Amino acid sequence: MKSLILSCLLSVCMLSSFTIRNPTGNNIITNTGLTGSWITEKDQKQHVLLFTNRHYSYTVYDLSGKKFYHTEGGTYTIDGNKLITTLEFNSSDPNVMGKQYTLTAKPDAKQLNINWPEEGTIWKRIDSGGGELNATWRITGREQQGTMNPIQKSARKTIKIITGQRFQWAAINTATGEFFGTGGGTFTFKDGRYTEQIDFFSRDGSRVGMSLSFEGKVEGSNWHHKGKSSKGDPIYEIWSKED
Questions:
Q1: How confident is the model at residue 34 (pLDDT cuts 50, 70, 90)?
Q2: Is 136 left (phi over 0), alpha (psi -120 to 50) or beta?
Q3: What is the pTM of this model?
Q4: Please, which residues have CB within 8 angstroms of residue 178's CB and are 6 or more apart in sequence?
Q5: Residues contacting 191, CB < 8 A, separation 6+
Q6: First vs last Cα of the chain: how many Å apart?
Q7: Residue 7 structural domain
Q8: DSSP secondary structure, 49-61, as one string
Q9: From CA 14, how far away is CA 130, in angstroms rounded?
């Protein structure tokens, strides 16, 4: 039901501006102006939508960030006025994974005025994307005992959706529908330093409010990420663009 609600939400909030070519085929995707991040608040809950060129995520947590409620996401494409979404993960219902919805896209100006979660709800744009990290990334390498070990592409994966100011990672399995965890918040990336501020964490609310800083650089389609995890363990990872 939540996935259907989100899909209906998406159908209302499309914006027409310019076109890009679908990296998975020859059809044209209309960039709807969704790229970036959006926030609305309702009943002491924060609702967040993130969009890259092909992927989206939707998350709900309380305003303190200590209680996580729900997240879901996947891919989306545009064909004329039709919006096609395909779920890759859903923290509340793994059985809806892979479901596709085709909806009519309608224009809106600069903010999202959506009758969800109730009539008259307004979503505020936080950013419009942009920057070196604005993409969906998949972890493809992790250093262990001084050796960088590749992580092969598979249905079991960890992705990170990044807009201009916000990020969300999710550990998922698109073959089984399993959801292993997620976290997200805001970030800065300047002078080789990537810093995250955690706003929500599905597995451990005590980590909300933590600030994590890493060495970071983008080389082609790869993002090198080195520092310490939220547990304090040293990490060196390579993430590769998914779109």
A1: confident
A2: beta
A3: 0.84
A4: 94, 156, 172
A5: none
A6: 28
A7: 2-126
A8: EEE-SSEEEEEEE
A9: 19
Q: DSSP letter for 9, please.
A: H
Tokens describing residue 20: 């890009």
The token pair at 198 is 């955690």
Least confident of 29-33, 40-44, 160-164, 196-200: 29-33
pLDDT tens, position by position, 37-62: 989 998 889 999 898 988 989 999 99
Check if the beta carbon of residue 202 is closer than 8 Å to that of residue 214.
no
CB 209 within 8 A of CB 198: yes
Q: Are 49 and 60 in contact (CB under 8 A)?
A: no
Domain match, 200 and 113 both: no
Same domain (yes/no): 60, 164: no
- The answer to whether 73 and 98 are in contact (CB under 8 A) is no
What count of residues does the chain have?
A: 243
Q: Which helix (H) or strand (E) holds 48?
A: strand 45-51
